[in-house]
Design brief:
By secondary structure, the protein is of the alpha/beta class. It contains nine helices and eight strands. Helix 3 links the parallel strand 2 and strand 3.
Length: about 220
């Protein structure tokens, strides 16, 4: 997998490569694993569970959920994923927190934010997130460790970079002004990950650049 190796070697050691594998067959996922990838992201629960079963011999894979999370899928996601990048409402946070308490699970979670208005994306606006930080602090069965963002489609590079920079600044401000420690930044996809890395991303969600063209996922491509 020359493309995977090329991307891996281009990333700073501080940035985690999360391979987005929606619609990617497990044969290619095994090849990515052999190339050194250990973090895989899925956005559809049933597809992910089938792949997890097929790849259960690869015991050191870390699974990331990056799709829009509905409450009726929350139990399966908590049982099967270590990371959730797409927590987008306080109501869902409180529900996951209660489920986590019952299951003895404490997933690592990124809060999805919309720095610019975008009808096609979920998540908090910065003002909404600030208003609900106090309530989020009470969700102690969730490891709320970062922010995730996706810029609106069609922005010029300068505006995309600005979205990523504001996300970084928002995470730092909340970390300083609350009990939350938002040290992770999940931002950057195949078309803009270099801008995200320059802005301080700690995780990039890459699919197309690793596996070629395919249907675009909600939170990673």
């Amino acid at each position: 997998m020359d493309r995977i190796l090329a991307v891996q070697t281009s990333l700073p050691t501080t940035v985690r490569l999360v391979a987005v594998t929606k619609t990617v067959p497990t044969t290619l996922m095994r090849a990515a694993y052999q190339a050194g990838v250990r973090h895989f992201a899925e956005s559809r629960v049933q597809e992910a569970l089938a792949k997890q079963a097929e790849l259960r011999d690869l015991r050191d894979i870390t699974w990331h959920f990056i799709g829009h999370l509905q409450s009726n899928k929350a139990l399966r996601v908590l049982e099967s994923f270590s990371w959730i990048h797409s927590l987008d409402t306080l109501k869902l946070a409180e529900y996951l927190n209660a489920l986590g308490s019952k299951l003895g699970k404490r997933p690592q979670v990124c809060l999805q934010v919309k720095i610019l208005p975008d009808d096609h994306k979920f998540g908090w606006s910065p003002d909404q997130l600030w208003r609900e930080v106090g309530a989020l602090e009470q969700c102690t069965n969730l490891d709320l460790c970062g922010l995730m963002t996706i810029p609106p489609q069609g922005l010029p590079d300068a505006d995309i970079a600005a979205v990523f920079a504001v996300t970084r600044e928002l995470a730092a401000a909340i970390s300083q002004g609350s009990r939350l420690s938002l040290h992770d930044l999940s931002m950057g996809m195949s078309g803009d990950y270099q801008l995200a890395v320059a802005a301080g991303a700690t995780m990039v969600r890459l699919g197309t650049i690793l596996f070629g063209d395919r249907p675009v996922g909600e939170l990673g491509s």
